[in-house]
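Work package 3, deliverable 3.1, input record:
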Amino acid sequence: MPRPPRFTRENLIDAAVRVCVQNGPGALTIGAVARMAGAPTGSIYHRFASREDLLAETWVASMAAFQPGFIVALRQRSEPPGLAAALFPVQWARSHPDAARLLVLYRRQDFVGGELPERLREAAGKLATELGDAISEFAVSAFGDQSLAAKQRATFLVLDLPNAAMRRYLAAGIGPPQGVDELVAEAVTAMSTASSALD
Amino acid sequence: MPRPPRFTRENLIDAAVRVCVQNGPGALTIGAVARMAGAPTGSIYHRFASREDLLAETWVASMAAFQPGFIVALRQRSEPPGLAAALFPVQWARSHPDAARLLVLYRRQDFVGGELPERLREAAGKLATELGDAISEFAVSAFGDQSLAAKQRATFLVLDLPNAAMRRYLAAGIGPPQGVDELVAEAVTAMSTASSALD
DNA sequence: CCCTTGGTAGCATAGATATTCTAGAATTAG
DNA sequence: CTAATTCTAGAATATCTATGCTACCAAGGG
């Protein structure tokens, strides 16, 4: 019944992601997104209440695209434990280059600033909780240990380590080469062997 | 003979670093730095030609503070090779919290944009070259291999890995806890053992 | 004591940018 | 065909920032 949209939320968030990965989140201006999407500025305000909101949505949408698959990988049993999860971000980066750059090269804090509408605060909070819980669960199953230290170790293995290995490539705008998977696998295996040797 | 300065270059760069780590490089505006330093805006233009210059100087100064010590650590023989270098960034972060946050949480590209005055381009280029050479040299001495892959592996071990392990703490505004050193040491040792097992 | 040098102070200007607002366009139910 | 609804368009306004500019300040040498 209504006029069909030319610029959906999704279209505009895509454009916003591209602006951010090209010039950093600081360069996300309404004008820049409008140019990137080929839309007039007014159309952006039709979908988003403010620049701040759009910036936050950009982050939340990218994280929401990444996280479910990652959590599945986290629950998958692999040998050594965590290998499947640690490889997931690298593989995901190949199929989602823009969103991956956003997530790896910047931080939540660069996008989600002060006051946000309920919907976004809730979405962001839910994502954080889900991820934290999934990692804790993994730490218990992998290390049989529910201490904070075990969770930190798990976070390092499955997130920080692969991100570190990819970072330079994503910064250069290229997909992570095959060697990254090998390096990650080697590191996870090495650390797993080292710790089981302590038993 | 002249009037004694109230705001030196150093003062202002310090303030700029603090602005960046608090709100990201995008928040580095002349006004923000002026407020942080307690100076009027005009005083900043007395020292720096433009906002872009100040931003670039902020990065160059932080990197220049980090790099010499790191290079010394890189040349230091340790067992396994690279352990001393990999631990250096973590220790340095404890004594230089603001500069470390800047270097770990953001990238050169977020600071050093397009056109820069000769002095800065040269300083930035020299830093990059020195670091690259030092890492290559380390890669040869540690792995006996001057391939690009060896250099990438070395970079991962001594820079990306420790940065990844610290990142969350620096983002939260706290110094890296002792567990980080242990994790880094464990990872470097594990990977060194794994690769020597291949011989 | 005055002049020179390097500095501070902060208002004034120009250019961006965010945000608002009004007019009109595209659809379909009735 | 018309009303109701959702959207596009983009000009107009309000803010924010970077930068330029002028007046004035402090110290030491002559």
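Residues 1-7, 39-43, 46 of chain A lie near DNA strand D (CB under 10 Å from a C1').
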